[in-house]
Amino acid sequence: MASGSNVAARAYVRGEPGGAGRQTRLLVPRGVRWAAHGAVLAVLPSGLWRVACAFGWDSGFRDGRLNPENFPGAASFYLVGLSLFAELLALLTLGLVRRWGEVLPEWVPWLGGRRIPVAAAVVPAGLGAAAVTALTWVMALTWGTEMSTEGAPGGGKAVVMTACYAPLLLWGPLLAVVTVAYWRRRRGSA
Question: How many helices, marked H, and strands, marked E, lie in the chain?
Fold first, then answer.
């Protein structure tokens, strides 16, 4: 298959239900796989920044919850939990390009081996892409104002924080691209 072709590639997958033990399924284009991995990686820097703060790194904040005097402490659980939650949500993007996003794994009790309805993946992923895009772009539009308030980090610490949060702007659009590709690939097979 030519690398720039819009023709969907098909692969034979052994052991899938239907036919004589062979069924075709659409392959995911390389660019869509990269977009899915990019969505996962876009969340990582902000999570690492929060975890560093949770373990006592001086982020430069002097007022409010992120004041370094609060860490490590009880608030550390919030920062680590938020980072893990965001990364787990981002990892679900990989389900839109992997087999486990089309057919539930066999180890899932009572439902293992069943096909996932297209809408069950596309609706939450589409809503998530819209919500993340809106949230991160609102955050970006107010970033300068927030970072200029008293008690906010300045200098190099502000640059590090901005560099860690900037990739989040890609999360929503990348998720949207992967979601649309999933829908287009699966709509005829549902």
Answer: 5, 2
In tens, the pLDDT along 128-139 reads: 999 999 999 999
Contact 100, 115 (CB under 8 A): no
**73 — pLDDT class (breaks 50, 70, 90):** confident
> Residue ranges of the alpha helices (H) in the chain?
30-54, 74-91, 118-147, 155-165, 168-186
Backbone phi and psi for residue 93, each to the nearest 5 degrees, phi listed first: -60, -35
**Region of residue 56 (phi > 0: left; psi between -120 and 50: alpha; otherwise: beta):** left
Could you tell me where the beta strands, DSSP code E, fall in 15-137? 22-26
pTM: 0.80
* Token pair for 23: 């069924």
